[in-house]
User: Fold this.
Amino acid sequence: MPAAAEASQLKRGEAGRAGSDVRSDLHVSVEERPGGGVEIELRSRVALYYGDNIRQQVRDVLRALGVEHAFVKMVDEGALPFVIAARVEAAVRRAGLGNQKSALPEALPLPAASTRDRLRRSRLYLPGNEPKYFVNAGLHGPDAVILDLEDSVHHSEKDAARLLVRNALRAVDFGKAERMVRINQLPLGMADLEEIVPQSPDLILIPKVETVAQVMEVSDAITRIAKRSGVTRPIWLMPILESALGIENAFAIATASDRIAGITIGLEDYTADLGVVKTPQGNESLFARLRAVNAAHAAHVQAIDSVYGDVADSEGLQRWGEAARAMGFEGMGCIHPMQIEIIHRAFAPSQNELDKALKIVAAFEDAQARGLGVVSLGSKMIDAPVVNRAVKLVERAKQMGLTAAAVSTTPGGQP
Assistant:
């Protein structure tokens, strides 16, 4: 075969981004060669210090993918090793090389397994194809991070983002934050699960859920992939209701699988489905939010509110969060770290609420210690539902780290 014809049949793929506005990422192109091993052209501000390490990592990744001969061109903007590995693998796959093999970075020890009813006041969305947001996300103190593969990722980058999120789950320490992943709408989301589930995420968000069948399809896939991969930790589900039909089926969806830890609502898509404008007051979505709360509580799972989209309006966020808590929501999403502290304040009980709950719990413990079946506080009888609500509030306050709640109560009724 003439050399020109042979060269025209060589495969080439590229992935990632570079440029003056890019950080913690890189652009890499991988071009097949008929022979001659691997040649790497690297441009990086840190090449003098880390160039040899970067080149060696690229060779290791290519070897793991079964690529023996290639020309690799890289423009590095400060990418960490887990990002380099994901971008090289994406470029190799796009070139049609590697036979769908994987090159996984070394895995950090997994954090403690997540519980179904853990604290989920704030869930910080992180665009799944933007590694610059990953490394420091846990430092902001959210209850959870959401590595997003859906709306924040352009359709042409879904494959690359999937590998990046997979590697982040292995290599990034998100601190105490629960590690959530929002997959794509089915059927594309099934490809996400194949890469994500073996890395033991804590929770999978399922977008645009309207039927029980959609939940069961994801739940069954998780069970199948987890068994094949040897994953034994719980992986919870949180369906997102984003349409009129989804809201109408809220209770059926909330009870569709034992994996469900909560349900949440997506108001941008919901209001679009209704053909109405989404407003800061939220009157147009009040019915849907109340329906979601009622369905969640009837199903004994958490009700989680939507995001508040105006990052600059901190007072509006505070009002929205306080109203959401009053409605029965236990948390909400956030799109910027500066929203986290405000959300935590909004979902915290007031000192008066906490003091009253502590007195009720103390009175209950006193009644139990004395063998009494009736709980009284002063001259008032306390019903069982009131006691249960007080116990839950105190327990949640302790999880929030509120100092007043950290003082244990004693049978004498004194905190």
